[in-house]
Amino acid sequence: MEGRWKLVIIHNLFGRDGGKPPVMRFSELERAIPTVSQKMLIQQLRCLERDGIVQRTIHPQVPPKVEYQLTCLGEALRPTLRALLDWANIRKQQSSD
């Protein structure tokens, strides 16, 4: 899980409503994380796919449609990431006091 962007990518793939994790196209991820370069996003997604956290689906059409979603292993990271975000919020509040 090293790297600046992996947790950000995973966070975006968790979705907003806490329901079923979304399926996102590459362009949607690019828009959701505007500060990451296309090259870095591709590299990080490939690493997450290799590690079994993200599933990549290529639909055979022109232009190719590529979608990403969390695997069961990736979804299992939800409680851990939530705990890290809660901790970061506590730390932020303490440093502003």
UniProtKB/TrEMBL annotation:
Which InterPro entries would you find in this protein's record?
Answer: HTH_HxlR (IPR002577), WH-like_DNA-bd_sf (IPR036388), WH_DNA-bd_sf (IPR036390)
Q: Which domain of life is it from?
A: Bacteria
- Name the record gives this protein: DNA-binding HxlR family transcriptional regulator
Coiled-coil stretches noted in the UniProt entry, renumbered to this chain: none
Record-linked Pfam families: HxlR
Any one GO molecular function term: DNA binding
Among Gene3D superfamilies, the record links this protein to: Winged helix-like DNA-binding domain superfamily/Winged helix DNA-binding domain (1.10.10.10)
Give every HTH hxlR-type domain span. Answer: 1-96
Concerning PANTHER family, the annotation shows: TRANSCRIPTIONAL REGULATOR, TRANSCRIPTIONAL REGULATOR, MARR FAMILY
Organism, scientific name: Granulicella arctica
- Keywords, A to Z? DNA-binding, Transcription, Transcription regulation
